[in-house]
Fold this sequence. Notes:
Distance between the termini: 49 Å
Radius of gyration: 18 Å
Number of helices: 4
Largest sheet: 4 strands, mixed
Helix content: 25-40%
Oligomer: single chain
CATH superfamily of the largest domain: Fe-S cluster assembly (FSCA)
Shape: elongated
Strand content: 15-25%
Strand order of the largest sheet: 4-7-6-5
CATH topology of the largest domain: GMP Synthetase, Chain A, domain 3
Order of helices and strands: HHEEHEHEEEE
Amino acid sequence: xxxxxAAASGRLAAAWAVLGxxxxxxxxxxxxxxxxIVRDVLDHGDALEIVLTPTYxxxxxxxxIEHDVLAAIAAAGLGxxxxxxxxxxxxxxxxxxxxxxxxxxxxxxxPPGPVAxxxxxxxxxxxRRADVVACPRCHSLCTERLSAFGSTACKAMxxxxxxxxPFEHFKPI
Length: 173
């Protein structure tokens, strides 16, 4: 007789491993696990429930991520599965894994620092001092913000004054 708890535990571990291979469509250097948007994986016996928290409520990649997660779980033979979106508490860049931060740097995006203690305050774009951000290529701190906005709402454009390369910075939120 197979131990049901051990089988469920193995299925959950396999699901977490599969989710580590599902790439974020906007930053394909990171998996959805690296990004910290996978909140939980629950085994209900008849189906797995994958609990996700989008990076922000209007994220245009949410549907693609849900599709890719379900497709990966099915391809691994772990289905059936469903996705539940949990929007509270809101996602924060503090949830990006250490491995994810390393991968961002290798990809050429400066990872976010820790969220400020006053994180409950509204984000202000105008009049807000730009963070000191290390260049992901040469690691110089001699950088300047070119724009508060990058290719996605969660990134800003910077330029390194040492190596002269432009780069994006994943904003801490």
